[in-house]
Structures are given as C-alpha cells and as structure tokens.
Amino acid sequence: MNLANKQIIENGLWSNNAALVQLLGLCPLLAVTGTLINGLGLGIATTFVLVGSNVTVSIIRKHIPQEIRIPIFVMLIASFVTNIQLLMNAFTYELYLTLGIFIPLIVTNCSIIGRAEAFASKNAPFPSFIDALAQGTGFTLVLMILGGLRELIGQGTLFDGAHLLLGDWAKILTIKLYLTEQKFLFAILPPGAFIGLGLLVAAKNIIDEKQKEATKVASLNQITLQQN
Questions:
Q1: What's 157's DSSP letter?
Q2: Would you say 163 and 169 are in contact if contact means Cβ atoms under 8 Å apart?
Q3: N or C: which end of the chain has fewer CB within 10 A?
Q4: 44 CB neighbour count, 10 Å cutoff
Q5: Which are the contacts of 122, defined by CB distance < 8 A and separation ≥ 6?
C-alpha cells in the first residue's frame, strides 16, 4: 500500500475522524448509541452508503455538471440509503425497527455529502473507495465505543441485542457484567451521550498532544545527536 493510501486511512480512522474531529453525524451518533449493537448496525449502514456513493461519484465525476453537483450527490446517496433500508427490512427487521427514522436520515449525514464533494468528486475510484471505507470504519468505531460505554454503565451488559444483527445464535454473545434492577437512565438517554462523546473527544485531544510532544522530543534528540 502506497503512502497516499496510508494517509487516507489514517485520516479516516483518526486524524480527520468524522465524529471526533469534524463532529458530523451527531444526530444519529447521540440518538442510537444506547447499546453497542445499535451503534454497530448504524455504522455498517452508514459505511455501505459511504462506499457506494463515493465510488459512484468518482466514476461519473467528469460527467456531472458543476452547477447541479450537490443535488446529484444527494440523489445518489438517497438511492443507496433506500437499498440499505430494503436490505435491513428483509434481513434484520427488528434492528431496522429499533434504529427507526435514523436509517433514512443517513441521506442528510453531512459527512457522506462532504466526502462526495471534497474527495470522491476529485479522485479516482480506488482512492475514493479507500477514503469511504476508512471514514465509515472510523465513524463506526466511535458509534461502537460510545454505545458500549453507555450500555455498560446504563444496564451492565455488552453486546445486548446481538441477535438483532447477527441472528438468534448471537444471543450467546451477550455479556452481563453486573446485575441491576433499574437501568441508569442518565447514561442511556441523550444527556449521557453528550457527556460520553465529550469524553471521547477530550481523550483523543490528549493523545494527540502527547504524540506531538513525543515527536518534538524525538526531533530535538536527533538534531542534538547530529550536532555532536
């Protein structure tokens, strides 16, 4: 894999993560991450739409009139969202009902339109595919981490509802870390999502600062060694 593709992946997963850096797609991010599985389901759906729209836009980019490119992007995105709706309705119906309105609202996710405009419309299909996959994976990981934290604190479980996505056999994946008679609603409801996301953003910023300091120290040490 060449350096450019590695940079695209690093941007999508970390440096330019849609949820933690761009702070896009916050409506579904905060609303559906009551459990890890809900976050995973929405993340897979979003990644599917991202990959499909990015690659399609890249293929036809030279034939799209500049004046009407945004409506065309939205129409393409809507077609992929319709496909994912039909697939989820057919194969993961209970999860589809749980996610509800947030599946069709993927059409309005600014990160998807943003990648079509900022990257896919200017690059070849393969880099556009890599960019969409990296951005979608980064977004999905944040959904899963936030959902897992809220589920763990709110009801003491992990992978609750895995059968909604993976089938009845996945009921054995549910982990009960502690028993509680009443759920901690503050963690499960949107206020807990806001605080959880804020903590994730703060943790990322701290890690970035430490990496910058370590890089700076390493550079100074290298300069000192060269001078000596």
A1: E
A2: yes
A3: C
A4: 17
A5: 61
